[in-house]
């Protein structure tokens, strides 16, 4: 076992998952629920007051009249409109943008669906074709074995489909908007345009039904964590809109034995000092079920961990089995490598006869120095920790530092000499 061993920080595939992706079971999880908070640069736990403050700050910085980016400004407004409303915020926290995407026109300006506002994806180019209904994202958890071997997963979804004809909305006469007269003061009235609540601004209504559909999701060999598998046009049907897409986002499960980065695998191995010096063979089950035997070459020695002088981190001794990593995506016949990070376990004590045998067998035995114990003091070693270095000697009370403040700080503690 490695206490904060290195390679993992470099090696980790970012198993944290999708932004905000929960770690619950099941094959589909709610979509992300952090983007709006990131947009306002607040924490998920922020209070309404903090959110308001962040909003005022950001909307000043990004206001288009002051040279800010208009899209960014819209995002900030939309995020605030949702997060400042406790009910909408709760929905968003539970269901993501799906939960609040009720056709309401967020962020001012033209209606733009929330997904394309925050995640791009063609939504901003409305003139280039019919609008699309919101796309959906589902996380699918996939084991490393399945990513190694490839797999087809059948997933059932429920989608809304339109039944019968699309009719013009009676409530707004197909305009999608309604005019309202408001009295501002005595003799002053104004007309306000509002999105039609009956058709959600579409100008059309249609009957829909829920349809169950089984999708075959092909997880290809070597697919990466967070990779997207897209089913075009499989999101809900909405009147006069092209159905959006369904995206399945691969979420690689953690593996008991292997860590993965790209096509490479990493496995950790504890060996005894004896194995480190004299060699070993180690059988492991690979991700495709093969048993493989990993062996040292004759004379090969597993070295100790070292410490990186700059970071102070422990660096395990690393070896590699070539071409036993993951299949490369798109080219499964080319595989990555399997890295092995070693930890050598030293014995804590040895019997006297073992010691003398080892001493006679191993190179560079200690040369016993001749001395007269009457003339030379003998000392035996105690265990110690480097963090205590500098703290030896008699304890100095803190009062003395305060009163004796000539040097501007504590005086160096002397190492005790005996
Ligand atoms: Zn209407």
From TrEMBL:
Gene Ontology terms for molecular function: Hsp70 protein binding; unfolded protein binding; zinc ion binding
InterPro entries assigned: DnaJ_C, DnaJ_domain, DnaJ_domain_CS, DNJA1/2-like, HSP40/DnaJ_pept-bd, HSP_DnaJ_Cys-rich_dom, HSP_DnaJ_Cys-rich_dom_sf, J_dom_sf
UniProt biased composition (Gly residues): 13-27
Segments of this protein annotated with the region Disordered: 11-34, 392-418
Pfam families reported for this sequence: DnaJ, DnaJ_C, DnaJ_CXXCXGXG
CDD domains for this protein: DnaJ, DnaJ_C, DnaJ_zf
Residue span, J domain: 35-96
Keyword terms: Metal-binding, Repeat, Zinc, Zinc-finger
Keyword Zinc-finger on entry: yes
SMART domains membership: DnaJ
Single Gene Ontology BP annotation: protein folding
Cited PANTHER family: DNAJ-LIKE-2, ISOFORM A-RELATED
Protein name stated in the entry: DnaJ protein homolog 1
Species annotation: Seminavis robusta
